[in-house]
Protein backbone atom coordinates (compact mmCIF):
# COMPACT_ATOMS: atom_id res chain seq x y z
CA UNK A 1 0.00 0.00 0.00
CA UNK A 2 1.19 3.57 -0.62
CA UNK A 3 2.31 5.18 2.63
CA UNK A 4 3.98 8.28 4.06
CA UNK A 5 6.83 8.59 6.57
CA UNK A 6 7.75 11.41 8.93
CA UNK A 7 11.45 10.56 8.61
CA UNK A 8 14.14 10.32 5.94
CA UNK A 9 14.63 6.95 4.27
CA UNK A 10 17.50 5.56 2.19
CA UNK A 11 16.76 2.24 0.51
CA UNK A 12 19.68 0.26 -0.90
CA UNK A 13 18.96 -2.59 -3.31
CA UNK A 14 22.14 -4.62 -3.49
CA UNK A 15 20.12 -6.99 -5.65
CA UNK A 16 16.59 -6.56 -6.88
CA UNK A 17 14.16 -6.14 -9.73
CA UNK A 18 10.82 -4.40 -9.76
CA UNK A 19 9.17 -1.01 -9.41
CA UNK A 20 9.23 1.67 -6.72
CA UNK A 21 6.67 4.48 -6.76
CA UNK A 22 7.52 7.85 -5.21
CA UNK A 23 5.08 10.77 -5.36
CA UNK A 24 2.98 9.29 -8.18
CA UNK A 25 5.94 8.31 -10.40
CA UNK A 26 7.22 4.78 -10.96
CA UNK A 27 10.94 4.02 -11.06
CA UNK A 28 12.75 0.85 -12.10
CA UNK A 29 14.68 -1.12 -9.49
CA UNK A 30 17.86 -2.89 -10.54
CA UNK A 31 20.96 -4.23 -8.80
CA UNK A 32 22.88 -1.40 -7.13
CA UNK A 33 20.00 1.09 -6.87
CA UNK A 34 19.51 3.54 -4.00
CA UNK A 35 16.29 5.47 -3.42
CA UNK A 36 16.06 8.56 -1.22
CA UNK A 37 12.59 9.15 0.22
CA UNK A 38 11.99 12.41 2.05
CA UNK A 39 9.64 13.38 4.86
CA UNK A 40 6.07 13.47 3.61
CA UNK A 41 6.71 11.74 0.31
CA UNK A 42 4.34 8.96 -0.68
CA UNK A 43 6.02 5.75 -1.74
CA UNK A 44 5.21 2.14 -2.48
CA UNK A 45 7.19 -0.94 -3.48
CA UNK A 46 5.59 -2.69 -6.44
CA UNK A 47 6.34 -5.90 -8.34
CA UNK A 48 9.46 -6.66 -6.33
CA UNK A 49 11.41 -9.84 -7.11
CA UNK A 50 14.44 -11.49 -5.44
CA UNK A 51 15.49 -8.30 -3.71
CA UNK A 52 18.18 -7.93 -1.07
CA UNK A 53 19.33 -4.77 0.62
CA UNK A 54 19.08 -2.35 3.52
CA UNK A 55 17.14 0.66 4.68
CA UNK A 56 18.46 3.62 6.68
CA UNK A 57 15.95 5.71 8.60
CA UNK A 58 16.82 8.96 10.37
CA UNK A 59 15.12 12.06 11.70
CA UNK A 60 15.54 15.74 10.97
CA UNK A 61 17.38 16.16 14.28
CA UNK A 62 20.00 13.58 13.29
CA UNK A 63 21.18 15.83 10.44
CA UNK A 64 22.50 18.36 12.95
CA UNK A 65 25.24 15.89 13.90
CA UNK A 66 26.75 16.42 10.43
CA UNK A 67 28.83 19.19 8.93
CA UNK A 68 26.92 22.15 7.53
CA UNK A 69 27.82 21.29 3.92
CA UNK A 70 26.72 17.64 4.18
CA UNK A 71 23.61 18.69 6.10
CA UNK A 72 22.56 21.06 3.32
CA UNK A 73 23.28 18.57 0.55
CA UNK A 74 21.27 15.86 2.27
CA UNK A 75 18.32 18.01 3.22
CA UNK A 76 18.04 20.38 0.27
CA UNK A 77 19.57 18.42 -2.59
CA UNK A 78 19.23 14.67 -2.04
CA UNK A 79 15.99 14.91 -0.07
CA UNK A 80 14.49 17.92 -1.81
CA UNK A 81 10.94 16.73 -1.31
CA UNK A 82 9.20 18.73 -4.02
CA UNK A 83 11.69 18.15 -6.81
CA UNK A 84 12.10 14.92 -8.76
CA UNK A 85 12.85 11.98 -6.52
CA UNK A 86 16.52 11.18 -6.14
CA UNK A 87 17.89 7.87 -7.29
CA UNK A 88 21.51 6.76 -7.37
CA UNK A 89 22.73 3.87 -9.51
CA UNK A 90 25.91 1.96 -8.76
CA UNK A 91 26.64 0.08 -11.97
CA UNK A 92 30.04 -1.53 -11.34
CA UNK A 93 30.51 -4.71 -9.32
CA UNK A 94 33.49 -3.39 -7.36
CA UNK A 95 31.59 -0.21 -6.44
CA UNK A 96 28.56 -2.23 -5.33
CA UNK A 97 30.89 -4.14 -3.03
CA UNK A 98 32.27 -0.85 -1.68
CA UNK A 99 28.77 0.47 -0.96
CA UNK A 100 27.87 -2.80 0.73
CA UNK A 101 30.93 -2.47 2.96
CA UNK A 102 29.92 1.08 3.94
CA UNK A 103 26.48 -0.21 4.89
CA UNK A 104 28.03 -3.06 6.88
CA UNK A 105 30.17 -0.64 8.90
CA UNK A 106 27.11 1.51 9.58
CA UNK A 107 25.15 -1.55 10.68
CA UNK A 108 27.95 -2.70 12.98
CA UNK A 109 28.13 0.68 14.72
CA UNK A 110 24.34 0.84 14.99
CA UNK A 111 24.08 -2.60 16.58
CA UNK A 112 27.22 -2.68 18.72
CA UNK A 113 28.22 0.90 19.49
CA UNK A 114 25.13 2.33 21.13
CA UNK A 115 26.71 2.21 24.60
CA UNK A 116 30.06 3.60 23.47
CA UNK A 117 31.36 7.15 23.51
CA UNK A 118 30.41 9.28 20.49
CA UNK A 119 27.89 6.81 19.07
CA UNK A 120 25.63 9.38 17.37
CA UNK A 121 28.61 11.35 16.07
CA UNK A 122 30.18 8.24 14.58
CA UNK A 123 26.91 7.24 12.91
CA UNK A 124 26.71 10.73 11.42
CA UNK A 125 30.29 10.46 10.14
CA UNK A 126 29.65 7.03 8.62
CA UNK A 127 26.48 8.23 6.90
CA UNK A 128 28.39 11.29 5.65
CA UNK A 129 31.07 8.96 4.23
CA UNK A 130 28.38 7.00 2.42
CA UNK A 131 26.84 10.15 0.93
CA UNK A 132 30.25 11.45 -0.19
CA UNK A 133 31.08 8.10 -1.81
CA UNK A 134 27.76 8.01 -3.65
CA UNK A 135 28.11 11.59 -4.82
CA UNK A 136 31.57 10.87 -6.22
CA UNK A 137 30.99 7.47 -7.78
CA UNK A 138 27.26 7.04 -8.35
CA UNK A 139 25.14 7.86 -11.38
CA UNK A 140 22.43 10.21 -10.12
CA UNK A 141 19.02 11.08 -11.46
CA UNK A 142 19.95 14.71 -10.77
CA UNK A 143 23.09 16.66 -11.63
CA UNK A 144 24.52 18.10 -8.43
CA UNK A 145 26.04 21.54 -8.18
CA UNK A 146 29.78 21.71 -7.59
CA UNK A 147 30.84 22.03 -3.95
CA UNK A 148 32.05 25.60 -4.52
CA UNK A 149 28.76 27.28 -3.76
CA UNK A 150 28.46 30.84 -5.01
CA UNK A 151 26.05 33.40 -3.55
CA UNK A 152 23.24 32.50 -5.95
CA UNK A 153 23.42 28.85 -4.99
CA UNK A 154 23.38 29.73 -1.28
CA UNK A 155 20.31 31.91 -1.89
CA UNK A 156 18.66 29.00 -3.69
CA UNK A 157 19.39 26.48 -0.91
CA UNK A 158 18.15 28.86 1.79
CA UNK A 159 15.03 29.62 -0.25
CA UNK A 160 14.24 25.92 -0.79
CA UNK A 161 14.74 25.27 2.91
CA UNK A 162 12.44 28.14 3.87
CA UNK A 163 9.75 27.13 1.37
CA UNK A 164 9.70 23.62 2.83
CA UNK A 165 8.98 24.97 6.29
CA UNK A 166 6.57 27.79 5.41
CA UNK A 167 4.76 27.05 2.13
CA UNK A 168 1.41 26.55 3.88
CA UNK A 169 1.47 30.07 5.31
CA UNK A 170 3.61 32.04 2.82
CA UNK A 171 2.64 32.17 -0.86
CA UNK A 172 4.34 35.32 -2.18
CA UNK A 173 7.94 35.80 -3.25
CA UNK A 174 8.23 39.08 -1.36
CA UNK A 175 7.48 37.27 1.91
CA UNK A 176 10.39 34.89 1.36
CA UNK A 177 12.70 37.68 0.24
CA UNK A 178 11.96 39.60 3.44
CA UNK A 179 12.48 36.52 5.62
CA UNK A 180 15.84 35.81 3.95
CA UNK A 181 16.95 39.47 4.08
CA UNK A 182 17.15 39.71 0.29
CA UNK A 183 15.56 41.96 -2.27
CA UNK A 184 12.91 40.37 -4.48
CA UNK A 185 15.15 40.98 -7.50
CA UNK A 186 18.16 39.26 -5.92
CA UNK A 187 16.08 36.26 -4.88
CA UNK A 188 14.48 35.98 -8.32
CA UNK A 189 17.84 36.19 -10.06
CA UNK A 190 19.60 33.67 -7.82
CA UNK A 191 16.86 31.05 -7.75
CA UNK A 192 16.20 31.29 -11.49
CA UNK A 193 19.91 31.04 -12.32
CA UNK A 194 20.39 27.86 -10.28
CA UNK A 195 17.09 26.04 -10.85
CA UNK A 196 15.80 27.41 -14.14
CA UNK A 197 12.54 28.24 -12.36
CA UNK A 198 11.28 31.47 -10.85
CA UNK A 199 10.64 31.44 -7.09
CA UNK A 200 6.87 31.76 -7.49
CA UNK A 201 6.82 28.68 -9.71
CA UNK A 202 8.69 26.69 -7.04
CA UNK A 203 6.32 27.88 -4.30
CA UNK A 204 3.26 26.93 -6.36
CA UNK A 205 4.72 23.52 -7.26
CA UNK A 206 5.31 22.76 -3.58
CA UNK A 207 1.75 23.75 -2.64
CA UNK A 208 0.27 21.74 -5.52
CA UNK A 209 2.30 18.64 -4.62
CA UNK A 210 1.17 18.74 -0.99
CA UNK A 211 -2.45 19.14 -2.05
CA UNK A 212 -2.12 16.18 -4.41
CA UNK A 213 -0.61 14.03 -1.66
CA UNK A 214 -3.41 14.85 0.76
CA UNK A 215 -6.26 14.49 -1.72
CA UNK A 216 -4.91 11.21 -3.08
CA UNK A 217 -4.11 9.38 0.14
CA UNK A 218 -5.84 11.12 3.05
CA UNK A 219 -9.43 10.99 4.22
CA UNK A 220 -8.86 13.84 6.66
CA UNK A 221 -9.26 16.78 4.27
CA UNK A 222 -11.68 17.45 1.44
CA UNK A 223 -10.94 19.62 -1.59
CA UNK A 224 -12.83 22.48 0.07
CA UNK A 225 -10.83 22.12 3.28
CA UNK A 226 -7.55 22.24 1.35
CA UNK A 227 -8.71 25.42 -0.38
CA UNK A 228 -9.61 27.06 2.93
CA UNK A 229 -6.50 25.87 4.78
CA UNK A 230 -4.07 27.28 2.22
CA UNK A 231 -6.17 30.16 0.83
CA UNK A 232 -6.36 28.56 -2.61
CA UNK A 233 -8.20 30.54 -5.24
CA UNK A 234 -8.08 27.47 -7.46
CA UNK A 235 -7.37 23.98 -6.17
CA UNK A 236 -5.12 22.05 -8.54
CA UNK A 237 -5.74 18.30 -8.82
CA UNK A 238 -3.16 17.01 -11.27
From TrEMBL:
<keyword id="KW-0238">DNA-binding</keyword>
<dbReference type="GO" id="GO:0003677">
    <property type="term" value="F:DNA binding"/>
</dbReference>
<dbReference type="GO" id="GO:0006355">
    <property type="term" value="P:regulation of DNA-templated transcription"/>
</dbReference>
<dbReference type="InterPro" id="IPR003313">
    <property type="entry name" value="AraC-bd"/>
</dbReference>
<dbReference type="InterPro" id="IPR037923">
    <property type="entry name" value="HTH-like"/>
</dbReference>
<protein>
    <recommendedName>
        <fullName>AraC-type arabinose-binding/dimerisation domain-containing protein</fullName>
    </recommendedName>
</protein>
<feature type="domain" description="AraC-type arabinose-binding/dimerisation">
    <location>
        <begin position="2"/>
        <end position="71"/>
    </location>
</feature>
<dbReference type="Pfam" id="PF02311">
    <property type="entry name" value="AraC_binding"/>
</dbReference>
